[in-house]
Amino acid sequence: MKRWTVLAVSAVCALSLVSCDSSEGETRGLGEAEPGTLRVLAGSELADMQPLLEQEAAATGVKVKFQFTGTLEGTETLANGKADGQYDAVWFSSNRYPAAVPEAAKRLGEQVKIMSSPVVLGLSASAAQRLGWTGRPVGWGEIAEQAGKKAFTYGMTDPSASNSGFSALVGVASALAGAGNAIDAQQITAVTPKLTEFFSAQAMSAGSSGWLSEAYQRRASGQDPGKKVDGLINYESVLLSMNATGKLPEPLTLVYPSDGVVTANYPLTLLQSANPDARDAHRKLAERLRTPDTQRKIMETTQRRPVVPGVELGQQFARKDLVELPFPATQQAVDALLGAYFDKIRRPSRTLYVLDTSGSMAGDRIESLRTALIGLTGADGSLTGRYRRFRSREEVTMLPFDTVPGSPETFVVPEGDPQPTLDKIKRFAEGLDANGGTAIYDSLQRAHDIMGPLVARDPDRFTSIVLMTDGENASGSTFEDFQRKFPSLPEAVRQIPVFTVIFGEGDSAELGEVAKRTGGNVFDARGDVLPKVFQEIRGYQ
Fold this sequence. Notes:
Blueprint: E1 18-21, E2 37-43, H1 50-60, E3 63-69, H2 71-79, E4 89-91, H3 96-100, H4 102-105, E5 108-113, E6 115-124, H5 125-131, H6 140-148, E7 154-157, H7 163-177, H8 185-199, E8 202-206, H9 209-220, E9 231-235, H10 236-245, E10 252-255, E11 263-264, E12 267-271, H11 276-289, H12 292-302, E13 305-306, H13 331-345, E14 349-356, H14 364-379, H15 383-388, E15 395-401, E16 409-412, H16 419-430, H17 440-457, E17 462-469, H18 479-485, H19 491-494, E18 498-502, H20 508-518, E19 522-524, H21 530-538
Parallel strand pairs: 1-3, 2-3, 2-4, 7-8, 7-9, 14-15, 14-17, 17-18, 18-19
Antiparallel strand pairs: 4-12, 5-12, 6-9, 6-10, 6-11, 6-13, 15-16
Helix pairs in contact: 1-11, 6-8, 7-8, 8-13, 14-16, 14-21
């Protein structure tokens, strides 16, 4: 749910009965256990539950403290033992991934399903009619065939960053394999050509379901310079909520693949390490959330399906009974599927990093920058690090700057043997030094100049610019110059999203406007979280 900063989820964190710590991408814990309090490590999309939880907390006497994270990061927190003593429960959209990681699975205790939402395809009404996908069953095979023909385009979250993207990947892979059981590594290899066809139509990526839906809405309404896409693969609840706002130029038609979906069931899960007081709080809260009245409130306010028998589905849920596809049962199968997606199946990406190496970066800041870039070369062996590294077929350009833009250096990571190229990127990062002034907008202009010919020569890539700085613009062109020149850039260049990273005294208002105008996002990395933020950005590339 990161609209403007990776360090803040939403203003509702200030609720009096339901508090939160929302340092997404890092998990520092919620401190000592308190009587009557349930400390929960939760998926970021659950921020929309906080107003309702405030009401229910008043009825149960339970205080809930949240910290938000991604499923992959949360699984790693469980697996490495950092959740022990810091959290009493986890609440992700699904426990399927944590359950596939032995060290994480052994820490999971009692699980209570609270609500559900399948991951489906939402298309603009006109696109669904054009494809003939209204009023009749449509399977993943037909969807993949039309995707391969570029008959439609869609956006989807990064499956290593968001459960909706991972569920979509699992769903389409399982359906296309047609095995009837959980897909394994051998089947993944066999189905890779069909998956490549399907993902050739993906035109937009994101690190979270919330940001993806916001970006789609901005593009559909013409507020974003990026190319419009025909639809999204996302939670049913997200797609229905988008329709309910009335802000879309045309509503989304939900396509429920007839051969099956993967459904999020949101289990509120007690940890094995929880003390008796926390166990009692978990029981009270879970019981309250499963009462018929609360289930109806959840359905009405979040568009998620009730899980308690006897609570009738609302009219907005066009399909009642859905086929559930099997989920990979082992970490090896999950790794194989994600590895194939990033290194073979997904459209390759092109990223230009505009790196502040001015004098104010000297010391810890330039060292943090080096560490963050080196981590992306494979030095970070964590779960998140493995999937957020520079990927096969990726084109990476580094543009350091100080008083003036430096000399760009481009690296293309080969599919067969990527390590020599990754080593070159590592050496480049190790050689970064800090001195001089800060020419932010001259350097951004240089980045646009570099990207123009690259995009023209090879437009079929996910393309983005990452602009990071620790200071105010002090040399060369101004922000006003950028605003004046931006409309005259070639259309293909204007459509490149710029993701801005602030980790010092940088002007957040100006850099936020750069991100907004280009269809990107802004990340606040002040403190010691730059490596984590770089990993977070990878979900958008």
